[in-house]
Amino acid sequence: MWMAELAARSGYPVPTIKYYLREGLLPPGEATGATRARYDESHVRRLRLIRALTEVAGLRLETVGQVLEDLAVADSWHEAVGSAHTRLAEHDGPPATAESLARADDLLQRQGWDLAPDSPHRTVLARSLDALAALDHPMSDELLDLYAAAMRQVAAHEVDAVRSPDREASAEAAVIGTVLQEPVLLAVRRIAQENASREREG
Amino acid sequence: MWMAELAARSGYPVPTIKYYLREGLLPPGEATGATRARYDESHVRRLRLIRALTEVAGLRLETVGQVLEDLAVADSWHEAVGSAHTRLAEHDGPPATAESLARADDLLQRQGWDLAPDSPHRTVLARSLDALAALDHPMSDELLDLYAAAMRQVAAHEVDAVRSPDREASAEAAVIGTVLQEPVLLAVRRIAQENASREREG
C-alpha cells in the first residue's frame, strides 16, 4: 500500500508517519522509486503498537524506541512481552524497605513464583506494602496470598488470550491488556466490595 | 488531651488543625475556658480519616467535607462506607456507550449483583470497556466473569477486614483499602502474568 493508505488504515496523519520513519520507530517501506515506497501489514501493526504504547500506556517516544529495540532482539515470545511489560512499570519512587522486599520475596516463594532479575514488579509491590504500613494499615499475608490465588487464575487466562505467533501483535495485546484491563479489574473489585458490604450488613 | 498533644498524635501542625476546626471538618473540643479546649480519641481518628482522604485518595478538602457529612447522616455501616467509596470514583470522563452499559448490566445480572442508584462503578466499568473496544481489543464476557469470580473472593475478605463498630474507622479503612491496596493487587497481577507467560513458553 502507499503512504496515503497506511495513513488511512492506521489513523495517523502522513507527517507523523514520516516522522516515525525518520526516527527509526517504523521500518522503511519497499522503495519503488526515488521518493515512493510501498508499505505492508507489518507497518499497520507497528503503528498500532506505537499507538498503544504512547496513547494508552503514556510512554514517551524515547521509551517506545527502547521497547521496539527490545522486541527486535527478544529470543522468545515471553521475553518480547516481558520487555514491553517492564518498560511500563513505574521505576521512579521511594526505595522500598528491606522488610517489605523480604515480604515480597516470601510471597514469591510461597507461590512458587520467580521474577526476571530486572523485573520492577518486586520493588513496586514492596513499595505499595510500605505505603500501607506507613498509614497503620499493614496488609496481611493472608490477603496477599488471596490476591495471588485470584490473580493466578486471571493471569493464566489473560496470557493465553494475548499469545500470537506475531510478536508485535502479542506485545501490543500485552500492553493494552496490562494498561487498559486494569481499570476494568478495579471497577469490578469495587462492585464486588459494594455487594459484599451490603451482604454483610444483612 | 490538649491541642499540642493532638498535633503530636496526628502528625498535623497546630495551624492546620485550627483550620480544620474553623472549616467544620473537625468537631470542636470540649471547652475548658475562653481559649482552651480538650480533645479526645475521636479527634485523632477524624484527623486520620482526613489524612486518608486527602493524601491517599487525593480528594479536595471540599469533597472531604461532603464525605464527612455523608458519614454523619449514614443509617448503616454499609452506607457510611459506600458513600466514602462513591466520592472516590472518577465521575468525570466521556459518557459510556449504551452498548457497554448494557454489558455492565449483563455482568451484574449474571453475578447476582446490585448497585446503589448513584453508584459510579457501573459507568466507570462501561467506560473502560469502551476504551478497550476502541483499540480493537474488546474484553470477552468470559474474562469479565473471571474477574468477577476472582474479585468476589477477594472482596468478601476485604470487607470483613475493614468492618468495625466505629464508622469513622471503617470508612478510613475502606478508603485506604480501596486506594492503597489497588497498587498491590495490580503488582501481584503483573507478577502472576510474568510467571504464567514463562510457563506457557515452556
Question: How would you characterize this protein structure?
Answer:
2 copies of one chain form a homodimer. In chain A, helix 5 (77-88) crosses helix 9 (167-201). The first copy, chain A, is elongated and about 70 Å long. With 202 residues, the first copy, chain A, is mainly alpha-helical. The first copy, chain A, has helices at 3-10, 14-23, 41-56, 61-73, 77-88, 98-111, 121-134, 141-162, 167-201, and strands at residues 30-31, 37-38. Chain A has 9 helices and 2 strands, in the order ααββααααααα. Chain A has one domain. Chains A and B meet through helix 3, helix 5, helix 7, helix 8 and helix 9 of A and helix 3, helix 5, helix 7, helix 8 and helix 9 of B.
From the alpha-carbon coordinates, what is the Rg of chain A to the nearest angstrom?
Answer: 21 Å
Mean pLDDT of chain A comes to: 86
Main structural class of chain A = mainly alpha
Quaternary state of this entry equals homodimer
Number of strands of chain A: 2
The stretches of 5 or more residues of chain A where confidence is low (pLDDT under 50) are: none
SSE string of chain A: HHEEHHHHHHH
Q: Tell the overall outline of chain A.
A: elongated
- The number of domains of chain A is 1
Largest interface: A-B, 77 and 76 residues
Distance, first to last CA of chain A? 63 Å
Give the spatial strand order of the biggest sheet of chain A. Answer: 1-2
* Helix proportion of chain A: over 70%
Annotation field: number of helices of chain A = 9
Biggest sheet architecture of chain A = 2 strands, antiparallel
State which percent range the strand residues of chain A make up.
under 5%
